[in-house]
Amino acid sequence: MQTPLSARNFDRCSVGILTVAILTGVLVLTAGCAERPWSFSFGQTPPSRLEHISEAKFEERVLKAQSPVVVDFYADWCGPCQKLGPVLEDFAQEHPEIRVVKVNIDENRELAARYEVKSLPSLIVIRGGQVTARSVGLIDKARIKTLAGIVEPNTFSAQSDVAARPPQ
User: Fold this and answer.
1) Which CATH superfamily is domain 50-148 in?
2) Residues annotated as part of the active site
3) What pLDDT digit, counting tens, does each position of 49-103 carry?
4) Of these four, 34, 58, 85, 153, which has the most CB atoms within 10 Å of its CB?
5) b/e map of 23-37 (b: 16 or more CB within 10 Å)?
6) CB within 8 Å of 93: residues ≥ 6 apart
7) Banded model confidence at residue 151, pLDDT cuts 50, 70, 90
8) 3-class SS at 97?
9) DSSP 3-state assignment of 87?
């Protein structure tokens, strides 16, 4: 007499449970696809908004740009530069109104010298052909927003809050 929990039945049960678990996981992972249509694809990332440019394209893509441009001077061998890459990618995805470009200093030494890049990573913000902000070293997305002049809604500094309050 065969029991209901024989090895054959157990394997069928396991396959059924595994199938339900996988399908449930896929449904959970695809939630929110309307906001980020690329999120449902396993192993795929959104298209990069970072533009790698050389000295030949710098004037056209950066100095003549109508919007602010964040320029990342980097090198492939630089560890902090590699860590900054995903942060810049997130920033670029969140702020499509600001162009983010990367300049490899090993391939564009004259450009790095013109902008006095002495340490890596170096970020500069250019508006209307002029450098308006500069940062050296690994920084977070909030600092990049500050450099680019982005003011988040519903944020204030402690000084502006104090200045706005009447004296007691």
Assistant:
1) Glutaredoxin (3.40.30.10)
2) 78, 81
3) 899 999 999 999 999 999 999 999 999 999 999 999 999 999 999 999 999 999 9
4) 58
5) eeeeeeeeeeeeeee
6) 46, 49
7) confident
8) coil
9) helix
